[in-house]
Amino acid sequence: MKKLLAFTAIAAAVAGVHAQDFPGSKTITMVVPFAAGGPTDRVARDLAEALRKPLGGATIVVDNVPGAGSSIGAAKVARAAPDGYTLLLNHIGMSTIPTLVRNVPFKVETDFEYLGIVNDVPMTLISRPTMAANNYKELSAWIAANKGKINLGNAGVGSASHLCGLLFQSATKTEMTPVPYKGTAPAITDLMGGQIDLLCDQTTNTSPQIEAKKVKAFAVTTSKRLTTPLLKDLPTLQEAGLKDFQVTIWHGLYAPKGTPPAIAKKLNEALKTALKDPEFIRKQEGLGAVVASDGRIEPEGHKKFVQAEIAKWSPIIKAAGVYAD
């Protein structure tokens, strides 16, 4: 027993020394489970830059590993050495993987160290420009009168727009015909052209079209109205009568399970410093995102939040019977 305690004390001391030196001159890889150029990729690259200074000028590279509702990239991190040099930046997909993806080779709640939530991105409900309705009340009446005839676009199974669409159908008790695309750009192009009726997507993707009046905007998916000049007059879907309707596309940072506590703590502290970086905040605001500043920036708060999101999305995805693989 004494030998075991001594070994444990030595191991803890060694880990502490390594944590003091971390990351040293070794490169940190931040895995993004989506293709380069998308909203999550942009958040990751901004975050990587903001993390460099609090991590002593570390080199942080972004590795795009898309596929299967973000589970392929997440699996790569779950299998990685738990030394702090391989991280995962994932969005709301982290909470949908357990239900959306069959035969997942890891457990979201137990195979990662939670390092903190990074930001929240609001979403907007928009329509083709020729839509007869001009406000949400009129749109709601149009939906009721056209049940079975409505085409609802999305950027692919498991995408933010797909998830928002599922929740919208559930909340309105209306079945719509899903029209999946390979990304947001072609979905919005068809919406502008009138080939589909509705789309619910991130402000990062919809704001330019709303500003150019190439689509009609009806509501935001946040619990409170947005303050940006372009969207400040849009009601929330909760205001419009959809009780408890709230969807934001949040991003969180993770490390493999078993990462030494001292290194995980150092990464969390670096993240909290990065989230206060004026340049990072400016870039996120430019994307329509709100940088996290609540209890979710702590590992415990981050994990509790993801668990609540899993409980929220699981029944909706099961009811829809959709899979990302």
From TrEMBL:
The keyword Signal applies. The keyword Lyase does not apply. InterPro entries: BUG (IPR005064), Bug_dom1 (IPR042100). Residues 1-19 form the signal peptide. Keywords: Signal. Pfam families: TctC (PF03401). Belongs to the UPF0065 (bug) family. PANTHER family: BLR1237 PROTEIN, TRICARBOXYLATE-BINDING PROTEIN. This is Tripartite tricarboxylate transporter substrate-binding protein. It comes from Variovorax ureilyticus.
